[in-house]
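Encode chain A's predicted structure.
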Amino acid sequence: MTEETITETLPPIRHWPALDLRGVDFDPVLTELMREGPVTRIQLPDGEGWAWLVTRYEDVRMVTDDPRFSREAVMDREVTRLAPHFIQAPAALGFLDPPDHTRLRRSVAAAFTAKGLERIREKSRRMLYELVDELLQDGPPADLTATVLTPFPIAVICELTGVPAADRHSMHTWTQLILSSSHGAQASEKARNEMGAYFGDLIALREGSTGEDVTSLLGAAVGRGEVTLEEAVGLAVLLQIGGEAITRNSGQLFYILLTRPDLAERLRSEPEIRPQAIDELLRYIPHRNAVGLSRIATEDVGIRGVRIRAGDAIYVSYLAANRDPDVFPYPETIDFSRSPNPHVSFGSGPHHCPGDLLARLECELLVDALLDHVPGLKLAVPPNEVPFKKGALIRGPEALPVTW
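Encoded structure for chain A:
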């Protein structure tokens, strides 16, 4: 991009409040920002200053792939942000750039491959069907979130990370405090520290291990000197929290299916389309509030005729990218036949979520179990009475009252 094509006129700064949105309503502020232009400026409820925001699919992919936009540089900055509790962790995967980021991810990559997930597929299926059997035995009405959609992902991620069943409740409690902005920074930081101390002990016990779970892989990597214990703990915490986020994604997914019985009926009658349909639902679901972690430009970069100066903070919106009409025709429509469907619900670039295959596996197992084995599953209350989480960074129903 030449200097002549770059405008030095800055767009206005738009305040982006933390909204508690219901159902799968798309953020109205983000809708306005998408209309205003491909590159805008935002101010979030916490932190300091303003940041750039890119919303077009192509630009989101460019920023997340470009090494000139650094996550590591965020550690030295007080950037405008959504959550009041920005807990900086120097060795955490989310705040590392390649090559350290690549080295750390490599230590657990085997657990998240298709082959690695096959190790836990059948046990996950058995755990799920035990939960569904209990649901049916207890009879309607029931809270699908409490009975199935919460305990199942917790059990699966703990199985994958190597956390004993007896400690699942503690993991869930810590994760809820970390993912919520309503308990305050002190409670969130305390929960993160306690989870970190737990994983520190567990990983240290497994140094030299030949196990295939995440903490065993990390213990072995620490033992070989490939990662530090601090790095291993930061990665374990991130994976544990991310693994439980499927609780809320699956809640939104089933909220759609229960409020759109035509979609649910199609998945019942055409089970062969379920993987493709789940991918479309993952594209459509607005899984988080506002934006995630920012990046810092390490040199001047031109995007769509706008100069992003060295030192500027920049956010990408995966939610907006998933609604880019240039990539997804009729983006507001749920289209189970959409192909190709290159959505970025799991991120893009080096920081692409390592658990994308795990999330798809869990969603497929849940859809199979609940649509095939709970005939007549439907909401027990009107859609507008389904309570959704407030003050949450990751969106989802607080409860999903169902009957059958």
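The mean pLDDT is 93.
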